[in-house]
Amino acid sequence: MEIAEASKAQAVELIQLVSFRLGQEEFGVEILKVQEINRMVEITKVPQAPHYCEGVINLRGKVIPVINLRKKFNLEELEWDKSTRILVCDVDGDVVGVIVDSVEEVIKIPRSTIEPAPEIVSSIDSEYIEGIAKLEKNLLIFLNVGKVTSGVSQQVGELEEVMR
Fold this sequence. Notes:
Helix content: 10-25%
CATH superfamily: CheA-289, Domain 4
Oligomer: single chain
Largest sheet: 6 strands, mixed
Radius of gyration: 17 Å
Distance between the termini: 65 Å
Structural class: alpha+beta
CATH architecture: Beta Barrel
Strand order of the largest sheet: 8-1-2-11-10-9
Order of helices and strands: HEEEEEHEEEEEEHH
Strand content: 35-45%
Number of helices: 4
Number of strands: 11
């Protein structure tokens, strides 16, 4: 009897995601990786940064690189508006800002609803996709924020050292 209850509890393991939009597609990032969600602020350009890195921001005395997901995923660039947000993510101790079109909501979904991503499921490279979640009305692309941001903090840090 106990084994059946344990497997039931495992089957409905919930995962919390912050959902956001890029164009017509809805994405999700594990909430434990998101430190905060900020409105757009002034971004200081960093010379020789990767094309998708908008620059850095000062967040309470800490310099944080900011990635433009539209540029990273080679999507059409849009002007930022009142809905545009910076998701401040902590990935294994590296804090990175990620610019998204809008933040939707925090959702809880059963981990079992996340399936491996088919090769051609969205306009972004499948290496950045952890899986696809089937929601009631649509599909949500579960993003691997670690892969999306990998190397940016290090590159920007090296550039800052050179600039000093």
